[in-house]
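Example record

Each entry pairs one chain with its bound ligand, iron/sulfur cluster.
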Amino acid sequence: MSGIYIHIPFCKQACHYCDFHFSTQLGKKEAMVNAIAKELVLRKTEVDDEVETIYFGGGTPSLLSNEEIEGLIQAVYDNYKVIDAPEITLEANPDDLVSSRAQSRDLFSEYKKAGINRLSIGIQSFFEEDLKLMNRAHNAGEAEECIKEATQYFDNITIDLIYGIPGMDNARWKANIQKALDFGLPHISSYALTVEPRTALKKFIEKGVVSDVDDEQAQAQFHILVDVLEEEGFINYEISNFGKPGFFSKNNTSYWLGKTYLGVGPSAHSFDGTQRSWNIRNNPTYIKKIEEGMLPMEIETLSKNDRYNEYVMTGLRTIWGVDLGRIASEFGENYLKYLNQQSSKFLEQGLLVVDDGKLLTTKKGKFLADGIASDLFMLNLK
Ligand code: SF4
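Structure tokens for the complex follow.
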């Protein structure tokens, strides 16, 4: 089974913390949608399996018209084998969903008609001060209104929330989580605010306009999140993802389980089982190359060490863990020996545990999973 990821590289305005690929110049939207549809045609021979998930990410896919969304879904059906009832997710921003109540009702019905069956809404916070600090295009009222409306039409909704925001104390963070719970949503994705190079947030922190993010605050807020959501029946199936049973993201789960996927649109990544490729992060060049029938991408073949490192990283981030038997059979006994050696100190510290032949992060170790994984990476062994 495969997934198709469609990157829509446009946003209304730049959030201060964001380093994804997007442009606020919407003039080329139509040409971009045509180019993405053409890329789907150009690459159809790359996917032999049936397509199980289609994911519109960005950027802001809710800036597309319903016809544009429908056209791209149709292009997938026209060129690929798609299973019955695939998961089709659309990332949407609150301000696009609530321009007026009547309009949003039409919009949700149209999304459903087009085949969208899962909405991922970029809420980030229900509080004005956080939204302003991050330069989100929506306000607190729109954050709540859009969920109220969306839940009339969709069962399968996820929202994004950000913790570790400067100035957001634990009480406000708990209130954010509670607001999400009050809507009865089956899935929440939540990320620590990170300061990426070349972002406005980075500059503001350097100039002292905004206080720096605080690791201890982020860690404390992550633990609050895990405790509250687990108490409410959510499963923290990946560090940043919490789902009620039956509502895990099929799209993201397939990435973490190492399945193949095709990513189209500028900056989109693809994985065919042995090679990773990524499209150019430049809208005009992407459109021009695709119009000329060329694929503007770079390709990298994963070495055995790369595959081992990726497996260890994703394994420690998810409830599926790192299968020690698979390490031995797929990579060899020397990799297993190395992993056992490197992981022993984390096992002693109670940050990792071995359960039923799987190496897993404990509750205490979960927030530190990326750092722990990097200590288990294979760097020089041939
Ligand atoms: S809407 Fe999303 S992709 Fe666009 S700037 Fe904000 S965080 Fe980045």
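Residues 11, 14-15, 18, 20, 22, 58-60, 93, 122 surround iron/sulfur cluster (CB under 6 Å).
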